[in-house]
Amino acid sequence: MSRQRRSVAVAAVYLGTFMATLAISIVSVALPAIQAGLQTSMAGLQWVVGAYTLCLSAFMLSAGPLADRYGRKRVWLGGVVLFTLGSAVCAFAGSLTVLIIGCSLQGVAGALVIPGALSILTQAFPDPAERAHIIGGWSSFSAVSLILGPMLGGFLVDQAGWPSIFLLNLPIGAIAFGLGFLSIEESSNPDHAALDPAGQILSIVFLGSLTWSLIKAGQAGWGAFETVVPLIVALIALVAFILVEMRVARPVLPVDLLRQRAFASANFASFVLGFSGYTSLFLFSLFLQRGQGWSATEAGWRMAPVFAAMLVVASCFGTLAKRFGVNRLMVGGYLLIGGSMTGMLTFSSTTSYGAIALLFALLGVGLGLAVPSTGAAAMGSAPRERTGTASATMNALRQGGMTIGIALLGTLMSARAVTVLETTLGQSGTGNMRESAALAIRMNEKPANLAVSPENFQTMLIDAFAQGFTLAATVAGILGFMAALVLAYSAYQGREKL
Fold it and tell me: Which CDD domains does its entry note (predicted)?
């Protein structure tokens, strides 16, 4: 491949990743507008984001083997087309059901586009040093989309309505497809591709049932029938999935690779990255708009320090990796994620933006180190002919972490907010208000039966959301510290210098 053609291929892959990543961040600031426009609940918002991440994670394990078997270029281009179609469905959705269908199509397409990017780049750049530089640039481009997403999304929501954030993907998808069609060279390794339809189906059942259970827990409680039954289904599917993967000749989850300490620890870290780092977009948007009362545009700009710091650090990743080594950067990144998220325990409805921006920036530095280092570590520990499977596994665990994180942390945030609001209403002399508090948190409005002035109730509601956020952020931070410990232990056991 000529240098010029390879540069165009890199541009195509970067642009496709930009589009798929933009969908994560741009939707976050539109959630309150979507809730108002479609008259949905907090659980409905979890499904708008969760449908995308659920399909993204559930189908990624299938996407890697498909790319290895039928061609990485062909599968990636198909993903770009499907993502553009899903965006059009979302833009013209007149109900929550249609919007969720569109987000699901985007998720399936993202499963083809995101891991396909790493696989294509790995094939195009066999030299490890050059590949680390390109992957660092890929992470930087992802960071650009994360920066632009909240700011551009907030502006579009306030000026043109929430459907406009999906229309934006239509020209981007067309350009990415054209560049990729002309420049990417086809490659495949069908002899090394997984052939495991039972495992693929069980992984989808597991993630879908678990997500359903976690979201329902926020509405009906942890002991409710609609929470317990899907949770049991998820556990059964998980056990069956593990048994199938241990016995099938070509498992969709590369069990042999996961027996390698470096690959396994990098993939655990990738799960935490999705659970703690990527889920933070969902949490920050709700905190700034619901926990501090900012508009969508204002919230988008206030999230910028996370992504600006991530962009700066990720753009320097190649140079930093040469000087300090990938493992050291990876451990440092997860320590910063853990420290910044647990530090948000101090946030409240009246916390100054200076304090918020500082911790947002520290999180951005951590993400800027963790994203490319985790990708480089995972891909570097897998055979070159299995890059599609390795990339799909790493990204599936990351997006699976985000899916579970949005469901679980969103539920914890809601449950804590309900408890705080109920307590506040009780102190104001309105009696036992558990049901009214739950309704208020779900719909973000004052129930008609509450004898509280709208102004006082709004203050109570904002404070409740803020306290719900601090619990979710603390749980996310603890997992960040756990990932750092696992990575440090793995490096020590492997006698790799930190």
Answer: MFS_MMR_MDR_like (cd17321)
